[in-house]
Amino acid sequence: MRWNVKLLESIFRPPLCERWVFANPIYPVNLTEDVLVVVKTGYGTKERAAAWFESLSNASEFRDFLVIADFASNEGDHLVYRGQERPVYDMVDKTVHHTQGLTQLSHQRAQKYHQLQRAIAAGDKEIALKLSKASGWELDALKFMSGLEFAYDKFPNKTWYILADDDTYLVQPSLKPLLGHLDPSKPHYLGNVVGDFRVRFAHGGSAIILSQAAIQAMLVENRKTLQKAHAESLSEVWGDRLLARALIRVGIYLNEDYSHLFNGESPRESKIRADRFCSPVVAFHTLATSAKMLDTGEHFGNITQPVLWIDLWDIYKAPALWRETEGVVGIHNQNSDHVGAPGQAVRTVEGVASAGECAKKCNLRYARTCLAWTWEAGPKRCHMSSWMIVGDKADGKVSGLNSQKARRLEMSCLGY
After folding, report:
1. How many CB atoms are closer than 10 A to CB 22?
2. 328 and 292 in one domain?
3. What average pLDDT score do residues 88-112 get?
4. Backbone phi, then psi, for 243, in 5-degree steps?
5. Domain finish residue from 243, 267, 300
6. Where is the domain boundary, 300, 334, 352?
7. Furthest-apart CA atoms within the chain: distance in Å
8. Phi/psi-derived region of residue 255, left when phi > 0, alpha when psi is between -120 and 50, beta in every other case
9. I want to staple 287 with a disulfide (CB 3.0 to 4.6 A). Which of 167, 236, 298, 365 is the partner?
10. Residue 330: exposed, middle, or buried by beta-carbon count in 10 A (0-12, 13-18, 19+)?
11. How far is Cα 63 from Cα 82, in angstroms, rounded to an integer?
12. Is the pLDDT of residue 332 over 90?
């Protein structure tokens, strides 16, 4: 029922107006005092965790962190943030002990963990990395519940708890007004919605936010729920779905009203859609290399105002030619691609002779659904999408936007 109701709401929902982004907070939040960030990493991606901390600029308000993984760091090998060591805590070990002897499956998953630990102890990095790559996803599911339990034990007085992957970047100026808009004494569960009618859950890579009330309901007031979740972690593929099921058992469902603020893509590949043009963006994902994470930190680290989705265009200095001309056709960016990889949601037309013809199709024939177009010179192919992305340099392609639509959407942001 909830799934179908949310589908209907998404169809008939009016254009979003989120003036609270720039309004005075109803529930003032101090990111330094009130927020704990739980950073989830693994042996195979630990270099990304170092870049995660390095990407935080001097303007960062975050202070309290827990780094959880499938291994523990040793003295002299801890992560460092602002001159202070940040140990990596092994949460898989805690879960294995919680579930020891339950099933044969638990033995199999525990065996993979112990194989990894033996390779790490022997100093065989090559084997350890190979094992981590092979079983990383299985071990990842074992971090969630023990990680949050450990986080609450160490920081029981935090107002908000944020679970983020080591390839997730949190946009603090957008995060702060979101939290300031919500009552932390209520059980809040926020994130980027994925899943289907069986269970809707917050995508872990896009960041998951839980209020203190939600944490207490799951970990303190319903211990049997926690024990059941530990047992299920032995077979669950996705830890974020495991967490959602535990929360649902205590009556806490994902608040999908804020799902569009959480982003499962990197900044340059983020799909700027009409329904979120003026909405703040709280997180980015798939920053799979240290270089990408550090680059994101350079672009967003010193920004002090909330970042709207359309702001990505200016932050990355992409040509916003729709602001400079009233013309419908002729707004081209050479060697660029504002559509992205073709897929089911991209309309592709073969045999289009020129970039100008592709622009006409987007701006005229398919104007209702097209926001961006890309023309490939070689195959003479025209791609059209209902979103636009900043994109990277794309040799042999010409790209542009539905200028009238982009201008109209951007003007609506001035209402804030």
Report:
1. 11
2. no
3. 79
4. -60, -45
5. 300
6. 300
7. 70
8. beta
9. 167
10. middle
11. 9
12. no
